[in-house]
Design brief:
104 residues, elongated
Length: 104
């Protein structure tokens, strides 16, 4: 399969939440870009689920708020790690999320 000349940019876009649709729709011939785009969408779905749960538990106090902040920081760190690994030619495998991304 031919490698996309914009592979690095597309892999970065793949992990920028809803922008993962751009490489998913533009680079159908590059399986590596497709995998990262699907993985980025699966991580985005997890982020949305976490957002819904945090909004549902909004009134439960400051302790839970601290956990939500740490959760957001963990998601951000996960996205940065996935971008760095993807740009360097690897794949960051996240338990359950990566398995779900493979089924998309």
């Amino acid at each position: 399969m031919p490698e996309s000349p914009n592979r690095g940019v597309l892999i970065v876009l793949a992990y920028l939440w809803v922008l993962a649709l751009v490489p998913l729709l533009l680079e159908r011939d590059d399986p590596e870009v497709q995998w990262h785009a699907k993985h980025g969408l699966a991580l985005f779905a997890c982020l949305m689920l976490m957002s819904i749960v945090s909004l549902a538990t909004f009134g439960l106090g400051c302790v839970l708020g601290v956990f939500v902040v740490f959760g957001w920081m963990a998601i951000l760190a996960l996205h940065v790690a996935a971008i760095l690994k993807g740009v360097n030619g690897g794949r960051l495998l996240v338990p359950y999320v990566s398995e779900y991304a493979d089924r998309i």
